[in-house]
Design brief:
Shape: globular
Radius of gyration: 29 Å
CATH architecture of the largest domain: 3-Layer(aba) Sandwich
Oligomer: single chain
Number of helices: 12
Strand content: 15-25%
Number of strands: 23
Helix content: 25-40%
CATH superfamily of the largest domain: Periplasmic binding protein-like II
Length: 495
């Protein structure tokens, strides 16, 4: 009787405290093969069952916890690690509700959870670097997933937290990721590039400099007026006579797009010198554009710019491949006495180095031989995509953001200038002399680059930067380099 009562008591306790998950039917919803194990997903209990065979006809099972709501599980390219992506508790109503998570499981020598990463958004896409350094969490097919956001995780750095990177998808969704091998871009240490494909564009991300702006390349339009859809991407590293090159084929076009990877982004530094010397980058006549980069004025301006580096030594050797951020960093460190930059640079410098207060001055660009002081004027646009399901709401949001007082507040906070004369006048009225220089440069001494559909491809291909760097290195004369630039521009203008 005593034995029976104990059994009945245990049975009662077991029934009363049984977790609800044990009542869920077991279904192997995902099975992943690894080097030394087979991983079986058990989403009902938020776990993975690792099956190993230690000997002939032997089978061992180990159970490892993962996040709630498993959405994706995949093996590393070497089959020695398992990556499990989970959504967590959605929607999150309490602060302690589980976040989306990436769980990394090592299988050697025995299966164990090596690291977990809490994520900011519940994505369902996961792409892995063939070399094992990077994991990319991104939008999948979910309607509510943001296609413009990527979460990059450096798997080789145990202290690295997930890095959120926003891209400009122009209405597309990431469809393929290509990780290059280390490429020799300019004279800097070789570095890898992540290439993100959507249905209509490519985004290039420098994996060594995740804080640098990404580069978006819109693909050529087809005869029907649609963007070409990228199919395959191949890459070739630099050799003695050329920079690294990406080659892109298309699913709906027989053409191939070649993209040169050139270090630095100095267009805004040297192209205005063409204007200042009395030349034109391109001219329009009777609706047709023609390059002016092979003119005597343009050649002389480019030679002058190259000589500042090669002969006058106004910048160190490493400056050949600097971008705007590198220039600002050198100025902040006191390695440069002067720099060309915008009000956003000044705002960033003052925020990062308050000790420089009162030690920085600003001035207009000096006039060139032709008397011109013109600099490049450009900006960003708010766009409502054609065919959007919520056009009226989108336009209301654009109108809200574009209200004068909001534009002024935004501009003042980051150092940009408004896109209207009224907004500029409003800022100029309250600007200090330090910032007043920039409003005067914009209103009195600025121009835009030629408003042609081909301009974006010129910049994306590094057409100008590549040629000018060859002059700075002494590989070509300014006349030879600019003749090549003009030829490429004219071919693009002629279609």
């Amino acid at each position: 009787m005593r034995r029976s009562s104990i059994l009945i008591g245990l049975f009662a306790v077991a029934c009363g405290g049984r977790p609800s998950g044990w009542d869920e039917p077991f279904e192997a919803e995902g099975v992943v093969g690894l080097q030394t194990a087979v991983a079986v997903m058990d989403p009902a209990l938020d776990r993975v069952i690792m099956l190993e065979s230690p000997g002939h006809l032997g089978l061992e099972a180990s159970v490892l916890p993962v996040g709630k709501e498993i959405v994706t599980a995949t093996a590393s390219p070497q089959k020695d690690r398992l990556f499990v992506l989970s959504h967590g508790e959605q929607p999150r109503r309490k602060a302690d509700d589980e976040l989306p998570r990436l769980t990394v499981i090592d299988t050697l020598p025995t299966p164990e959870v090596a690291r977990t990463y809490d994520l900011s958004d519940p994505f369902s896409g996961l792409s892995l670097d063939p070399q094992g350094q990077w994991a990319i969490v991104h939008a999948g097919e979910g309607v509510l997933e943001n296609p413009n956001e990527l979460i990059l995780i450096d798997l080789e750095d145990p202290d690295a937290e997930p890095k959120i990177k926003s891209i400009r998808s122009f209405g597309g969704r990431p469809s393929r990721f290509t990780f290059t091998s280390p490429l020799s871009i300019g004279d800097e240490e070789p570095r890898r590039v992540l290439i993100v494909q959507t249905e209509q564009d490519l985004t290039l991300i420098d994996l060594m400099r995740l804080d640098d702006p990404e580069i978006t390349v819109l693909t050529p339009e087809t005869e029907s007026g649609r963007f070409s859809q990228p199919a395959l991407v191949a890459y070739h590293d630099a050799d003695e006579d050329s920079d690294p090159v990406l080659a892109v084929s298309f699913a709906n076009s027989s053409s191939v797009l070649l993209i040169g990877l050139v270090a630095g982004n100095a267009n805004h530094y040297f192209l205005p010198m063409v204007w200042q010397n009395g030349g034109e980058i391109a001219r329009e006549k009777d609706g047709r554009w023609a390059s002016g980069m092979d003119s005597a004025e343009a050649v002389e301006a480019i030679q002058f710019y190259a000589d500042l580096y090669a002969k006058e030594r106004f910048a160190p050797e490493g400056a050949l491949s600097w971008n705007a951020r590198d220039v600002r960093a050198a100025f902040e460190a006191g390695d440069l006495a002067m720099m060309i930059g915008g009000a956003w640079d000044l705002r960033a410098i003052q925020k990062a180095h308050p000790e420089l207060e009162g030690k920085i001055a600003t001035a207009l660009l000096p006039a060139g031989p032709a008397g011109s002081q013109d600099a490049f004027a450009g900006g960003s646009h708010l766009v409502v995509f054609e065919g959007t399901e919520h056009e009226a709401l989108a336009r209301r949001y654009v109108d809200f953001l574009a209200e004068p007082e909001r534009v002024v507040a935004f501009s003042e906070s980051i150092g940009f200038l408004p896109g209207s004369l009224a907004g500029i006048t409003s800022i100029a009225a309250s600007a200090t002399p330090l910032y007043g220089t920039f409003t005067k440069q914009l209103t009195d001494h600025s121009r835009t680059y030629p408003p042609t559909t081909q301009w974006g491809s010129f910049e994306a291909d590094g057409l100008f930067t590549n040629a000018v760097q060859q002059v700075m290195k002494g590989q070509r004369t300014a006349k030879e380099a600019m003749a090549g630039v003009a030829e490429a521009m004219n071919q693009a203008f002629e279609g």
